[in-house]
Every structure is written in C-alpha cells, then in structure tokens.
C-alpha cells in the first residue's frame, strides 16, 4: 500500500522533474486549493472581461469591425469555458464557482472594473490588456497542472490574434485625423496603469507567489512579468506614435530594462476590494445573465437525464451480437 509519505514524495519528484500533475494524481490539498483559486479567478476574468468590449458591439463603426469584435468577445467566452472545465477536474463545479463570484467570495482581474468610454478602448484593450494577458499566460502553458497548461496553449494563440487586431485598429486610427490620434492617446493614458496592475501586487506584497513558484504553478514572479511587459510595449508604442503617461520611463543600460514609476497600489487594492469604477455594474450584469440562464441549464440537465434513461434499456436489452440503437437514434426518438 502506498503511504501518504510516498505519495508526497512522488508529487515532489513530478514537480522537480517539471512533469505534469494530472487530475487523478495525488496532490496536496493546499496545491489543489491554490489551483482552484487561480483557475477560477482566471475563468471569471475571461467571462467578466466580455463586458467592457461587449458594450461596443452594437456601436462598432463598420460591419467589419462589428464582426471582428463579436468574434473576439465570443473567444473570451470560450476561454472561460476551458478554464471552468480545468477547474472541474480539480473537483470544483462551474455552478459553485460562479455562485462564489456573484457572492463576492472570489475575485476576477482588476482591469475589467474600468469603463470603456469610447470605441478606441476596444483597440487599446486588444493591444495592452490582451498583450499583458499573453505575457502572463505564455509561461502558464508550462504550469505544473496538466489541464490548466493545455488550456493555456489554445488561449494564448487566440489572445495573440486579439492583441494584433487591437494594434491594427489603433494603427488605422493613427493614420486618420488629429481627433482620432487624440482619442488613441487619451485611451492609452487611461489603460496604461491598470494594465500594469494586471500582473498583481509587487513581489514583496504577494502572499501567494513563493509557494506557487515552488509548486510550478507560477514560473515567473509578478514583477518579472510586469517588467517584461513594459520592455515589450515601449517599442510598440513608438511604432504606433503614442506615449505612456510616465515621465520616468527610460532605458537603464545597467539593468538592461526600462525603468518605470511605481503604480498606485492603493488604487489597485481599492479596485480589488470592490471599489473600482465598475465593480458593482460588472457583478450585477453577471448575476442577471446567470439568473436569466437558469432555464437553459435546467433544460440541458433534463435532456441529459432523459437521454441517459432512454439509452439504458437499449444497452441492456441487446441480444449478443446485436449492436443496439446508436445514441443518435435514441436521442432523436426521445426527442419525438
Ligand atoms: N486583479 O499573491 P498574489 C485576460 C489578488 S485574463 C484582481 O500575487 P497570485 C483575458 C490575488 O488573486 C486576466 N485580483 O496572487 C482577457 C490574491 O488574492 P487571493 C486574468 C488580483 O495568484 C483580455 C491577492 O491579490 N488573468 O485578461 C490581481 O499568486 C481581454 C494577492 O496576489 C489571470 O487570471 C488582479 N490583477 O498572482 C479577457 C492569469 N492580482 O486570491 C477579456 C492567471 C492579484 O489570495 C478581454 N493568474 N490579485 O484572495 C495569475 O497569473 C495570478 O493569479 C496573478 C496573481 C498573477 C493574477
């Protein structure tokens, strides 16, 4: 019989070898809990993150831009669903997690509590918010929990397409009128600091980083990824012809990185605690959608139960050598 100590040793060896932990493997309860917390927050962010841009679908300036935006917002829904599925393999159902989100017991990314005041924000979110998300999520493709890492591979491919569409939108506006260029700069000014805050609190104020790095859930610290994002965004801003609202941004030869000012961490914690400009609105909207969707969930469950009942006698009733009715036939007959 395998003892608890042997299971712990196996788990430690898997982490050490940078192999994956899979849902049926033994894992420490604290590892499971940390993963559920992070994956749930990530899933909630994707779903709540549909709201700021969804706000502009009916007001997109052309059919082409509307089709692009619709597809992007639908992709975010898909990301949320892969992530809820990953959380489900850890024993946390989507219903349970959504109810915790609505009750304020789980978090989602601070960035989605800021409003989208003009259509330009769709471009800025694509460029900076999806850009920050990719920076954070590419390393998560190698996270230690298998289903989370595998979900991230597809998510990252789609996010990089989102980032390019945002940049292309802004580039198009920068080639337009003075007023359009001003709109881009104004939008970038509003989103720069909240985008930097997406990476989480500074390392010396991040209670989860050390343990998550030890377990291979995180492979980089919050500050490392924030610096990477600053370094990659500056040449992109120069090519676009915009500036970031930070007079201390400058190349530091010695460090081999750009220096930048400290974000306003009081603002960050205030937003995380529920006091951002749109927190109430975002949760109220999510609650409304969840309540209004109850009948769909009930209907899907009733259909699944009915199909299972109809399929059961067909399987047991088949004589040897007979294949019985196919699930598709059974379902069709049940539906009639
Ligand atoms: N907002 O100890 P740490 C996207 C919380 S997806 C709110 O450093 P950790 C796609 C943190 O949970 C964006 N809360 O925590 C898209 C913890 O609270 P807790 C989401 C935050 O987990 C684009 C406490 O502060 N991405 O944008 C934030 O080690 C466009 C202490 O923090 C992910 O979720 C924050 N920004 O590191 C969609 C990526 N930061 O739970 C639509 C996966 C921290 O102890 C449109 N997550 N907190 O009560 C991660 O990589 C990590 O969880 C971090 C935080 C880095 C976010």
TrEMBL record:
UniProt xrefs under InterPro entries: Aromatic_CoA_ox/epox, Ferritin-like, Ferritin-like_SF, PaaA, PaaA_PaaC
GO annotation terms (biological process): phenylacetate catabolic process
Biased composition (Low complexity): 305-321
GO MF annotation, one: phenylacetyl-CoA 1,2-epoxidase activity
Composition bias type Polar residues, residue spans: 322-336
Gene Ontology terms: cellular component: cytosol
Disordered: annotated segments: 305-336
NCBIfam families: PA_CoA_Oxy1
Protein name (Swiss-Prot/TrEMBL): 1,2-phenylacetyl-CoA epoxidase subunit A
Gene behind this protein: paaA
